[in-house]
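Entry 12.
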Amino acid sequence: MNDVIDINSYTPVEKDKFFFDANIWLYLYCPIGNYNQKITRKYDSFLKKAICSKSSIFVSALILSEIFNRWTRLEFNILKQLYPSQYSDFKKDFKNTQKYRETVSTVKNVIKSNIIKISNRIDDKFSSISLDNLFENIENYDFNDNYFLIIANLEGFKIVTHDSDFVSQKISVPILTANKKALRRI
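Predicted 3D structure (tokens):
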């Protein structure tokens, strides 16, 4: 069981090393997600405190992949609701459109101008990760979440997430969240 910390009560310090989950980056920078502004403000406030305290923020290629894929799928789903006869298949009806290219350009700009600008890129250490640990109890957990926990454990990261699935996993890593469901588990 992970150490779950209410993000509102945690004060970042310079020696802290944070790994922000994709959902946090999407809350902060993806306007089409229509996320709860009260929750978004909590994470935005925390990010500002982490930057002011000179804490280190880390990002991996897999997080960027999750951001990219989720954002483009959000845009597709919006279009699919508005124009169901025109947008029924992501790859066939959306990927080669001007709207897709515009979305990709926006995501690329956010990643380069915002996320990478304040983060340190990490190598994923895949060659040193035990596959047994990676697949342990995988039927109950998300593969990427398990992977992020292993990396966080290896690197001494605290994970900032709104995903309550991180809480009950076996790999012990500090989890900072504003997710009430996750906080009730402590």
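Annotation: Residues 145 and 166 are 7 Å apart (CA to CA). The chain has one domain: 4-184.
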